């Protein structure tokens, strides 16, 4: 029997060491070392790791490299295409991460079923072919060109690939795949690393795009070594609140496009629906006459949308007031409350403040500040904000309203959705030339904004 050798591998950065370490000397993380059994012989010839042809690549002069526009595969899904930077690049390795049950398998299966022109192999290590068929029936589209195989052994997977010669490969999920070369269990650091490296080699050498589905651990990062994220070309995250139907596809890393792009979907009974106009979805409630509601013109990624911000301010029942924020950074909210207290003289110290961004979305845009502060004040005063008014602006520590980026897009989106008035930061309209059918009110300080909103 071959002699077993074990190493300790950092599950964060993938560094290895012959003995266990409390702190990783490379990435500085604590308690990340796990023991991994490896076999002594790692040569591919023995394990037959790469049964596909190896091309003999020659060094080229950089100036001689052809720079033709990367051809893109149209996935027939506008959101997905956009997040990838205009479609799937042949030979690219894409990793999609997300919490269990969020809809990763559904998204990929649905995309694959819509791609009739491409011979696809869906390798499932998690579900049986029957389960996949049931899901496909639910999505209700039929593809003539989608092959399914339930297999978790990497060497076997390459055999299937060689026989079938697919033009697009899906692996669901990378944590269930194992190779014979490494002796640790599937999902362990060295398995994930070895398997994805072999898959990458396959993708690059045969110019076949591969999508890997990856699990997420409790800290919210993609399980397995960080190196997995370094290996792949594109890392996408599929996220959303289980209790809401919206799902967001976000690009975290993309070698072929911008990471600012965002795709929005709605989970339906029969699969995911692309949401091309997110504001419509987020502004369905009529909030006329309700206090504590304000509408922000926000931007996530590069898309503007209008989103409802709700606040509730009530007298604190206990000594320490409660502060809670859903979909918004709590520390930022506390800072805004302090500004409100100082600048507008509102005594919020004895008040509980609850903040909620509608639809279960998480918004990081600082331009939300003005809407947050207005919603809090509206609830505190119990005066509602007029229905057709929206706002955008970052609030500074001295109560000044600071300019935000892409103001033009925000204003145009508000106009498109029928708002009659938008509050914007002063001196933010330089270069804004469009003629718009919406009243634009420039405000310099929070006090001015409050006067506009509450008289
Ligand atoms: P799934 O794709 O299995 O999630 P993941 O692969 O990320 O673990 O998603 C399953 C969830 O989606 C499940 O809770 C049921 C729901 N779903 C729908 O609401 N509509 C549908 O058409 C499908 C196929 C699933
Ligand atoms: Mg799944």
How are the elements arranged and paired?
Blueprint: E1 4-10, E2 16-17, E3 33-39, H1 44-47, H2 78-83, E4 93-98, H3 104-113, E5 120-124, H4 129-139, E6 146-150, H5 154-164, E7 168-172, H6 189-206, E8 210-214, H7 226-231, E9 234-239, E10 246-254, E11 262-268, E12 271-274, H8 278-282, E13 293-300, E14 303-315, E15 323-326, H9 330-344, E16 351-357, H10 369-381, E17 389-391, E18 394-395, E19 401-402, H11 407-416, E20 421-425, E21 439-443, H12 446-454
Parallel strand pairs: 4-8, 4-9, 5-6, 5-7, 7-8, 15-16, 17-20, 20-21
Antiparallel strand pairs: 1-2, 1-3, 9-10, 10-11, 11-12, 13-14, 14-16, 18-19
Helix pairs in contact: 3-4, 9-10, 10-12
The chain binds thymidine-5'-diphosphate and magnesium ion (MG).
Care to describe what's here?
This protein is an alpha/beta fold. The chain has three domains: 4-39; 73-276, Rossmann fold (3-Layer(aba) Sandwich), CATH 3.40.50.300; 280-454, 2-Layer Sandwich (Ribosomal Protein S5, domain 2), CATH 3.30.230.10. It is 26% helix and 26% strand. Helix 3 (104-113) packs across helix 4. The longest helix is centred in the middle third of the chain and has 18 residues, at 189-206. The radius of gyration is 26 Å and the shape is globular. The chain starts with a strand and ends with a helix. Mean pLDDT is 85; it is low at 42-49. The structure holds thymidine-5'-diphosphate and magnesium ion. Thymidine-5'-diphosphate (TYD) binds at residues 98, 100-106, 135, 138-139, 267-271. Residues 104-105, 126, 172 line the site of magnesium ion.
């Amino acid at each position: 029997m071959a002699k077993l050798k074990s190493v300790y591998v950092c599950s964060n950065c993938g560094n290895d060491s012959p003995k266990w370490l409390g702190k990783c000397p490379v990435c500085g993380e604590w308690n990340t070392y796990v023991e991994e059994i490896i076999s002594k012989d790692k040569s591919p010839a023995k394990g037959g790791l790469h049964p596909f042809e190896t091309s003999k690549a020659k060094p080229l002069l950089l100036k001689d490299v052809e720079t033709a526009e990367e051809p893109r595969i149209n996935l027939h899904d506008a959101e997905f295409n956009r997040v990838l930077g205009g479609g799937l690049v042949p030979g690219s390795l894409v990793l999609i991460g997300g919490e269990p049950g969020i809809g990763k398998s559904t998204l990929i299966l649905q995309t694959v079923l819509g791609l009739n022109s491409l011979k696809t192999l869906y390798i499932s290590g998690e579900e049986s072919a029957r389960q996949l068929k049931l899901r496909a029936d639910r999505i209700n589209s039929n593809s003539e060109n989608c092959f399914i195989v339930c297999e978790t052994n990497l060497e076997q997977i390459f055999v299937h690939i060689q026989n079938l010669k697919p033009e697009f490969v899906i692996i669901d999920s990378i944590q269930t795949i194992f190779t014979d070369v490494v002796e640790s269990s599937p999902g362990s650091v060295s398995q994930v690393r070895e398997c994805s490296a072999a898959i990458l080699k396959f993708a690059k050498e045969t110019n076949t795009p591969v999508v890997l589905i990856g699990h997420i651990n409790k800290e919210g990062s993609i399980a397995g070594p960080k190196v997995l994220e370094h290996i792949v070309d594109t890392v996408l995250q599929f996220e959303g609140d289980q209790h809401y139907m919206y799902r967001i596809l976000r690009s975290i890393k993309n070698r072929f496009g911008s990471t600012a792009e965002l795709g929005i979907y709605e989970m339906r009974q029969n699969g995911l629906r692309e949401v091309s106009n997110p504001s419509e979805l987020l502004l369905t409630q009529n909030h006329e006459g309700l206090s504590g509601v304000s509408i922000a013109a926000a931007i996530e990624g590069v898309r503007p949308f209008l989103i409802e911000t709700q606040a509730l301010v009530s007298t604190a029942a206990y000594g320490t007031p409660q502060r809670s924020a859903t979909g918004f950074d709590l520390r930022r909210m506390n800072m805004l409350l302090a500004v409100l207290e100082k600048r507008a003289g509102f005594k919020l110290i004895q008040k509980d403040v609850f903040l909620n961004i509608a639809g279960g979305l998480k918004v990081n845009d600082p331009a939300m500040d003005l809407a947050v502060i207005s919603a809090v004040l509206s609830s505190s005063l119990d005066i509602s904000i007029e229905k057709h008014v929206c706002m955008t602006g970052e609030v500074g520590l001295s109560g000044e309203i600071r300019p935000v980026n892409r103001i033009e897009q925000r204003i145009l989106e508000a106009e498109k959705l029928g708002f009659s008035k938008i509050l914007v930061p002063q001196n933010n309209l330089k270069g804004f030339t469009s003629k718009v059918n919406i009243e634009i009110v420039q405000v310099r300080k929070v006090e001015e904004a409050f006067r506009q909103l509450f008289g």
